[in-house]
């Protein structure tokens, strides 16, 4: 989303295999212990859909997240579908 909107981000790797997402420092930023997380100054937002919406709203007039109410509802529908149905279905189960 950031690249499509022309927003430059400073990326930081989180070594999931080493459990970096479960350290106290990371959990202070994102209590869910998941990625991604976006920090914009002292404001922090996590959850992919929320991050995409936040980035889109920094660029008024973009076509990725429409301003028109019904078109935006369609985008939101798919964002919620992905977060609530698709992501859980494809996540690896812990045994």
What would you say this structure looks like, in words?
The chain has helices spanning 2-5, 24-29, 48-57, 69-90; strands at 37-40, 43-46. The radius of gyration is 15 Å and the shape is globular. A two-stranded antiparallel sheet has the order 1-2. A hairpin with a 2-residue loop joins strand 1 (37-40) and strand 2 (43-46). The protein has four helices and two strands. The mean pLDDT is 90. With 95 residues, it is mostly helical. The longest helix is centred in the last third of the chain and has 22 residues, at 69-90. It has a single domain (2-90), classed as Glutaredoxin (3-Layer(aba) Sandwich).
Radius of gyration equals 15 Å
**Kindly, what is the distance between the CA atoms of the first and last residues, rounded to a whole number of angstroms?**
34 Å
Q: Give the domain tally.
A: 1
Envelope shape = globular
- For the record, the CATH class is Alpha Beta
Helical proportion?
40-55%
Strand content: 5-15%
The CATH topology annotation reads as: Glutaredoxin
What can be said about the biggest beta sheet? 2 strands, antiparallel
Low-confidence stretches: none
Query: What letter string, H or E per element, gives the SSE order?
Result: HHEEHH
Assign the CATH superfamily. Answer: Glutaredoxin
How are the strands of the biggest sheet laid out side by side?
Answer: 1-2
